[in-house]
Amino acid sequence: MKKRTYTDRSIASSDITPEHVFLNRRALIKASAGTMAGALSAPSIAEAEASTQSTLSFSQDADRSLVDEQTPYDAVTTYNNFYEFGTDKSDPARHAHNMTTDPWNVKVGGLISQPGSLHLEDVLSGFDLEERIYRFRCVEAWSMVVPWVGFPLAQLLKRLEPKADGKFVEFKTLFRRGEMRGTRSFTSVIDWPYREGLRMDEAMHPLALVAVGLYGKTLPNQNGAPLRLVVPWKYGFKSIKSIVEINVTAKQPKTSWQMLQPSEYGFYANVNPEVDHPRWSQRFERKLPSSIFKPNRVPTLPFNGYEEQVAGLYQGMDLRKFY
Ligand SMILES: Nc1nc2c(c(=O)[nH]1)N[C@H]1C(S)=C(S)[C@@H](COP(=O)(O)O)O[C@H]1N2
Ligand SMILES: [Mo]
Fold first, then answer.
1. How many CB atoms are located within 10 Å of the residue 80 CB?
2. Nearest bound ligand to CA 91?
3. Who's near 102: CB < 8 A, 6+ residues apart?
4. 55 near 308, Cβ under 8 Å?
5. Terminal C-alpha separation, the chain
6. Which of 54, 205, 25 is nearest to 124 (CA)?
7. What phi, psi does 258 have (nearest 5°)?
8. pLDDT tens-digit profile of 57-116?
């Protein structure tokens, strides 16, 4: 079995299947019914690495085991941000089942060699799925550790053959008013569809993941089925859900949160304990599940703990200016 080890043990990774890989969605669904043994063994791989490595330095008072412990499935799938279904954390779990995800098409366009529309099966075909255990940090100062299932975004982008003048990648979420009650709400503030973007080198970074599952199962709708982005060194809002469009662009694309409140949410949105949100500090985070009895308050790390891997992307940039 291919086993990939990163210097940061929290992103230990393993193939989701021991020998051959499930490359289409139906196989993944079938597999999720009970045979994803590879996924189940992943925590033990992470544990094995934990005993031989400790490359991250947390402040003295931080409890390491707490920081890297996986967030229970229930918390990951019931405490969500997916404004298309409402603004309460519990809204997506209650209402996202209304979203139709089969069939699913992804429009690919802009500065690529073959613009067009791909069926989900075509998007997934040919890629090995792997499990990646990532920390996930929302700009609202809560965090989780999630075992995602997916493939590197770079693989998909390479297949699209971006042209030399393509410097950014833009993503859009499904917008279907009839199935998304949050988009019909009077209090809805976002200019739908939800949009996000990355610089090309960020999008090509091996940590940037297209996720199709979590905890060895297909993604629940509330977590962005059938495919979403996971960019673990950035605040959660960059990890756009339920993607239906990908464009390679020459100019920096507009993103939903930046359009809404540019002084509070930047294009880069790298996790940075040194740069406070205008309305709250980003020095600490509440690791879910948390309560007043067990606040689980842990220090936030630069680039969410992935500094070693990604800091090079931002050399020479003033990260206070490009927040
Ligand atoms: N389409 C869409 N994608 C989205 C959001 C959203 O409201 N709509 N919320 C973002 C935010 S703020 C976060 S923190 C993460 C939450 O992902 P999770 O619910 O899987 O934890 O999704 C991001 N992707
Ligand atoms: Mo978020």
1. 24
2. 1
3. 25, 120, 226
4. yes
5. 39
6. 25
7. -65, -40
8. 333 344 555 668 999 999 999 999 999 999 999 999 999 999 999 999 999 999 999 999
Q: 3-314: what CATH class? A: alpha beta
CB of residue 196 inside a 6 A radius of ligand 1:
no
Fill in the DSSP letter of residue 27.
H
Q: Is the pLDDT of residue 15 over 50?
A: no
Are residues 101 and 314 in contact, defined by beta-carbon separation less than 8 angstroms?
Answer: no
**H-helix or E-strand spanning residue 196:** strand 195-199
User: According to DSSP H, which parts of the chain are helical?
Assistant: 25-32, 37-52, 64-68, 73-78, 91-95, 120-124, 153-160, 181-184, 200-203, 256-260, 307-310
> Per mean pLDDT, which range of 167-171, 186-190, 224-228, 310-314 is the poorest?
186-190
Between CA 17 and CA 128 the distance in angstroms is: 9
134 closest CA partner among 289, 13, 310: 13
Domain boundaries, the chain: 3-314
* Residue 77 CB less than 6 A away from ligand 1: no
Q: Which residue has its alpha carbon closest to ligand 1 atom 12?
A: 237
How many Å apart are CA 233 and CA 270, to the nearest integer? 6
List pLDDT tens digits, range 206-231: 999 999 999 999 999 999 999 999 99
Residue 263 amino acid letter: S
The reply to whether ligand 1 has any atom less than 6 angstroms from the CB of 99 is no
192's tokens? 């739908």
CA 211 to chain centre: 7
Write down the H helix ranges in 53-199: 64-68, 73-78, 91-95, 120-124, 153-160, 181-184
Calculate what percentage of the chain has a pLDDT beyond 70: 79
Q: What Å distances lie between residue 104 and 204, 221, 226, 244, 248, CA to CA?
A: 24, 13, 8, 8, 20
Q: What digits encode the pLDDT tens for the residues 28-40? A: 443 343 333 333 3
H/E segment holding residue 144: strand 142-152
Ligand 1: nearest atom to the Cα of 222:
19
